[in-house]
Design goal:
The complex is a heterodimer of chains A (113) and B (160). Chain A is of the alpha/beta class. Chain A has four helices and five strands. Classes of the chains: A alpha/beta (113), B alpha+beta (160).
Chain lengths: 113, 160
Amino acid sequence: MELSLATRTVADHTVVEIGGEIDVYTAPRLRERLIEMVGAGERRVVVDLGRVEFLDSTGLGVLVGAHRRLRAREGSLTLVCPHERLLKIFRITGLDSVFDIYDTVESATSVPR
Amino acid sequence: MSTVHLAFTPDPAYVRTVRLVAAAVARRAGVADELLDEVRLAIGEACSRAVALHRRLGLSDPIDVTMTDGGGFTVKVTDRGPAESAREPGETTLDLMAQVAIATGRVPEDEDALAAGVGLALLTGLVSDLAVNETPDGEGTEVRMSWPAGRRLGRAGGNG
């Protein structure tokens, strides 16, 4: 399955729901979408990885880039990731200390400013 | 011992194809189900790294992937980049961990450079038996990965 991207608003956050595989081939599309969102003024972004089947280093690079762009504009990028197989990737690369990662969209969007 | 060998044009679109083939061959070789996700990810990372290298150097030569199951499941991903691209992955991993841990503000500006570092971190983290070496002809780099495997197909399946 290739990449799917859907955006919705939940409690003052913009939630990007990603489905399918984020890899060296599909990651540029995710990068473009996130850059567009930041350009359009979105500041509180939640990336929902709940339906992601595969994530590689290219995808992680895109997430870190978006995180940095948002931080530079006093925004935030929060991740939702309920899957151990993906959480392991964040731990191995040390990126679990960079991102705030939640189990559900509800918990990610109820974080106080 | 059986072998599956493929060569692909350095295009990101084919990395997924290689992952799919690799997972199927690994399963047939008897790699445990719980390792298959790691096998898929590690082989994908090795291929992504090779594709990025070829594209950066403007090389259209194919990237070689050889999978063998003799005593274990071994995969070799071979690029045609110069030998200096075969750096010790451990050092890069440590550099990356330090950089990332300090603050995201200090992460390399270039997402591709960051991804390359993260890719090596993943390779070293996922594959306990990993070697990155210059190819015997000195004109490329070979990433070699191995996982334990036991044949799950009985002799009734023949030699095929």
